[in-house]
Amino acid sequence: MADGTGAIEPSKKAKAGGIAGDTLKRYLERIERLEEEKKALAGDIREVYAEAKGNGFEPRIMRKVVSLRRMTAADREEEEALLDVYRQAVGV
Amino acid sequence: MADGTGAIEPSKKAKAGGIAGDTLKRYLERIERLEEEKKALAGDIREVYAEAKGNGFEPRIMRKVVSLRRMTAADREEEEALLDVYRQAVGV
Amino acid sequence: MADGTGAIEPSKKAKAGGIAGDTLKRYLERIERLEEEKKALAGDIREVYAEAKGNGFEPRIMRKVVSLRRMTAADREEEEALLDVYRQAVGV
Amino acid sequence: MADGTGAIEPSKKAKAGGIAGDTLKRYLERIERLEEEKKALAGDIREVYAEAKGNGFEPRIMRKVVSLRRMTAADREEEEALLDVYRQAVGV
DNA sequence: CTGCCATTTTACCGGC
DNA sequence: GCCGGTAAAATGGCAG
Question: Which among D24, D85, D88 has CB closest to A86?
Fold first, then answer.
């Protein structure tokens, strides 16, 4: 650990497979559980897009709007301005 | 919408900014709410890694382990598929 | 093969490891060679973006422009129009 | 560009639509040319799969095999990394 | 035309 | 704090 490369055996209290191993396991299980929930939410989001699509809205465009709403007004305007500059430069 | 260009005003019920606009807004708000929850979970996961790091475990390695655990199922399937290929190749 | 599951032993002419195996191997090698070339081109593209960045252009925006140029004028205008509709509907 | 907002007119040499615009255009054209080649290779690869299919090989399985071959190097590295983890865990 | 697979884009994380 | 690489998500293309 002194060399900064180590991973297990935190604070020299125990060796892998012992108490530290149990601690590590608990961390991993907490992480995996949280990741499952996260994955479930991703599924929920997909479902909402699908439902919206069923009502005539285009998910692709909806995503763009969500993305725009996520940005601050300043950032959004700046990016749009720069894009305009590039577009004019190449004539699109 | 018969012209294939539109998306808003599903079922001819309303125009943008009207009822359809409200519907769209509701979808977007549902999505944004779910994304917030998802983001919160991502934050929780980060915290667990940070806590583990505080106890001497290296997040980088932990991520590797999580990844390996996750891939196990997929790899097993891959391996079974390959086994099938070989079985078919030899006609068993 | 009649059951639709088989892959090797095409036309019942040979068994894996034999002529068919050689044929398969040749196909795989052709594919792998082409994929290497493809990967090299991807590297070249990355380099161009990096060079442009070094001259003050933002790759992120450049990619958007490339994407716009890829679309037909009609598609591009339609998409922009629809995005405007959605944006107005939710007030972005 | 001292204000960090600009990108075009690198080194204050020109304005959009001018020299900088030409430079940008050249970058975009290089990129688009490379992408065309890349796309052509993708088409070639697809053709090889199609030809193989015509000779009784299943593209789906072939892709799996190609993928497995490709992953071998990565897996080997992964395995070595994991070995390192274990070595560190036991302090060898 | 729906679902799958590949590619591309986006977000995240550790290093400098 | 930026930047590069790495993993997740989304978009697009293709077969069935």
Answer: D24
Mean pLDDT of A44-73: 93
Query: Residue B50 has what DSSP assignment?
Result: H
Amino acid at D78: E
Q: Which three-class secondary structure string do you get for D27-87?
A: HHHHHHHHHHHHHHHHHHHHHHHHHHHHCCCCHHHHHHHHHHHHHHHHHHHHHHHHHHHHH
**Length in residues, chain C:** 92
Cβ atoms of residues B69 and A36 within 8 Å: no
Please report how many Cα atoms fall inside a 13 Å half-sphere around the Cα of residue D46, on the Cβ side.
6
CB pairs under 8 A between C and D: 101
Task: Judge residue B54's burial from the number of C-beta atoms within 10 Å of its C-beta, 0-12 exposed, 13-18 middle, 19 or more buried.
Answer: exposed
Per-block mean pLDDT, blocks of 10 residues, chain B (92 long): 48 61 93 94 94 90 87 79 83 81
Q: What's the per-residue H, E or C state across D6-29?
A: CCCCHHHCCCCCCHHHHHHHHHHH
Two tokens at B19? 């009822």
Q: Which of B39, A92, A79 is nearest to C65 (CA)?
A: A92
Helix or strand (DSSP H, E) at A81:
helix A73-90
**Using a CB-CB distance cutoff of 8 angstroms, which residues of chain D are in contact with residue A89?**
8, 16-17, 20-21, 24-25
List, as own/partner pairs, every contact residues B51-55 make where C-beta atoms lie below 8 angstroms and the sequence separation is at least 24, other chains included.
B51/A27, B52/A24, B52/A27, B55/A10, B55/A11, B55/A23
d(CA A59, CA A47): 11
Mean pLDDT throughout C71-86? 92
Percent of chain C scoring above 90 in pLDDT: 68
pLDDT for position A86: 94
What's the pTM?
0.82
Q: Which of D61, D78, D85 is nearest residue B85 as measured by Cβ atoms? A: D61
The amino acid that residue A84 corresponds to is D
Q: Which pLDDT tens digit goes with each residue over D12-56?
A: 444 556 788 899 999 999 999 999 999 999 999 999 999 999 998
Cβ atoms of B16 and B25 within 8 Å: the answer is no
User: Contact at 8 Å (CB) between C21 and C8?
Assistant: yes
